[in-house]
Amino acid sequence: MSSAAPAATGYLALVLHAHLPFVRHPEHDSFLEEDWYFEAVTETYVPLLGVLQRLLEDGVSYRLSVSITPSLMSMLADELLAARYERHLRRLIELSERELERTRGSSTQRVAELYRGQLVATRATWDRWGGRLLQGFREQLETGRLEILTSAATHGYLPMLRPNPEAVRAQIAVGVGCYERHLGRPPRGVWLPECGYYAGLDSVLAEFGLRYFVTDGHGVLHARPRPLPGSLAPVYCCASGVAAFARDTETALQVWSRDHGYPGDPVYREFYRDIGYDLELDYIGPWVQPDGARKNTGFKYYRITGPGEEKVLYDPVRARERAELHAAHFVTQRERQIERQAAALGRPPVVLAPYDAELFGHWWYEGPWWLEAVLRGFASRPGVCALTHPVAYLRAHPTQPVAQVAESSWGDQGYHSFWCDEANAWIYPHLHKAAERMIELARSRPQAVGVERRALNQAARELLLAQSSDWAFIMKAGTMVEYARRRTDSHLRRFTRLYHDLRQDTLDETWLRRVETLDNIFPELDYRVYC
Amino acid sequence: MSEDRSSDSRAGGDPPRNKQAAAGAAKELLERIRRLAARGRQSAEALAQRIVRRALGDVPHSPPAASPAVVPERPSEPAPAGEEANGRSTPEAAGVAPPVEGELSPERLAAVDEELPELPPDYGDRRVVLLARDPQWLFCYWDLSAVDREPPAREGRLALRLHDATDIDLAVHPSWSQHIFPLDKDERWRHLPLPQLDRHYIAEVGYLWPSGAFQALACSDVAEAPPIGPAVGGPPALEATVELDAPLPGLLTAPPPTPPSAGGPGAARAAGSPGAPWSGAGSSAGFWGAYS
User: What is the 3-state secondary structure (H, E, C) of A356-388?
Assistant: First the structure.
């Protein structure tokens, strides 16, 4: 099916970035950080698939782009995590039944019923795809309505990996390979982790057939020479011809802003009031950590209300009405933005609006309702602003400015400081050294077979996992720092042992097999991506 | 996403009691001792202590106790990388002996990092890395041996020298300016304020002598900070047409068969300005350089 967008005065390209670090711990029966994945499946990925499926069934010609990072793809395809998620979901459904009993006749019963219904629907969606949600996304991809972007293998923050160009190349190569393996076709677009870009990175993307990426607004606005259309048109990187689309600031604020964005509306559900913390352990104990430490369950009964501690009970009917109101506002605002800019630009402007996918449903409970209403809204009135994919826009409008896109990111301050700070700078000498050693290993053993080959592949996996930008991010953010430090340290130490064992010919196959079992990301990885 | 709760409170369980597993563990331990002793990674005393602790069951390597409410269901034992979960082997796993029973138990998996050495503080490479952090700051780290960190004479001190190397080769042209940052010998990285925006810098680490002389140990590559704002003045960017389904011109190694203004499928061509020099769109080699 063609993904061409209808003719319009201008376009909106909505991009959701779905990413989680690779968190899988077969060495423990239950592991708190795996909840990140379980929560995201229940609250974001399944609801998103539900939205897309409903639109498809209703014949709505939506256009949406989603980047699914290779680490997340690997988790979505993992059998152990699938089995654990089923257990997790079964227990949530049990909790929802108890909540129906507990709230019967009270003013919170309606919310409990909502949760119960959603969890049963989640179970149905999960079963429909046999626990393979990627298959659901793949089917949407094949309709031409959904565009899926790839990303760097483990979401490595590429500007900080650049001292080893081969390491950057490997992140991209493995990301593209993972996409092809799971989706059966090559990707056209790439989500650069944290929108981190530096001059020359586009040439690496071009090498793998990638035709566009997303940068923060100033990546294009600060480009040299100055692109006349500003951030409402893509720019071709002068060294490669790969297109850079700039994040639109106006749409970013409307959804992201803590103070002025939609998700902060007092009618919406309050994220931080969860029965995992609010109820007595005698009741909620089986659903928190084994030692009684509290954690989120996803059952929340209050609305944001206001800045104070006092919270009013959540009303899902009002919240849904508000989400639809906000969606209509968003549609109208985009039309005005397009009308305002189109004449001056001399070409159909494209507003690129990227958001973290996990914002929708997990953090902003009403996000999927809002998204569905937005997609329906634009599809029903495409004359001024039509939905598009970046790749479809490039096909329809191939003449664009050529410039050197500016180094940038979408992180705090707009550059690299969040990933290179006093809290996390210590990792870079080790990451760079490990990359240098991996390159040395790959180049010195291009024909390895058997155990040696497995060890080389595992060394590459350990390096890639250590490079995940999430660890540096968490160290800087100051939450769960110990886990992030441990992951970085552990992958680097495993890599270092493999390096020495390979060089000294002292490989221990039993230990290797254990590490392969633990860190089984990218089973088809070929270490020669580092040659 | 439950970002404010730690996983560190997991409880431990009982060590394995199965005789077969114990025999396997002992055999593995002996092999490990032999290896470690051969590499000199641990002292004999540390090894002996570990043996005793293991024998007494004092080495924590058990899985946490499951929540009482958790159904004691165990997913099938995970497949190692290189081996499909359904049991099919990938090429790299061909010919690999099947794992011994218990070899991949959670207890064994949880213990893989035991006895791995800590990461070293330095690799002794004599290396300086300089990277842009933002338009106003650079990030610099250096790797030196413990010996290098001590100046050869007491009067000297470890220091970093930052050169403005904008558009010059320091081998043939002195830097436009130099800035010295005295270093503590235990320091390993520093964020450096840019003396001037939109310039290129190179860092050296070495010894600074009372005479002012600088003895370099290692030198970085050039780092260029990102621009702090939009380009001011100069012509705006030219435009080009790039056909999506054609190979990117930047990857061409030979000149294209037709001149850029003639167009044709797959060719990048100037828009609105026939014969315009490609250098107007950027001076980098590759995409546009192929046509200049």
Answer: EHHHECCCECCHHHHHHHHHHHHHHCCCCEEEC
Interval A463-482: pLDDT, tens = 999 999 999 999 999 999 99
d(CA A144, CA A510): 46
Q: Is the pTM of this model over 0.90?
A: no
Structure tokens at A213: 């990426």
pLDDT band for B286, please (50, 70, 90 cuts): very low
Active site residue A356: yes
The Cα A133–Cα A500 span in angstroms is: 39
Is A194 assigned a catalytic role? yes
Beta bridge partners of A354: A15
Beta carbons within 8 Å of B177's beta carbon, 6+ residues apart: B163, B164, B195, B196
Please identify which residue in the block is written with the tokens 């009002």: A318
- Say how far apart CA B211 and CA B112 lie, in whole Å: 53
Give the ipTM.
0.94
The runs of H, that is alpha helices, within B81-236 are 106-110, 146-149
Q: How far is A493 from chain B, CA to nearest CA, in Å? A: 7
Q: Which of B109, B122, B134 sits opposite A26 (nearest CB)?
A: B109
Residues of B in contact with A222 (CB under 8 A): 226-231
- Side chain identity at A24, as an amino acid letter? R
Three-state SS for A157-219 is: CHHHCCCCHHHHHHHHHHHHHHHHHHHCCCCCEEECHHHCECCCHHHHHHHCCCCEEEECHHH
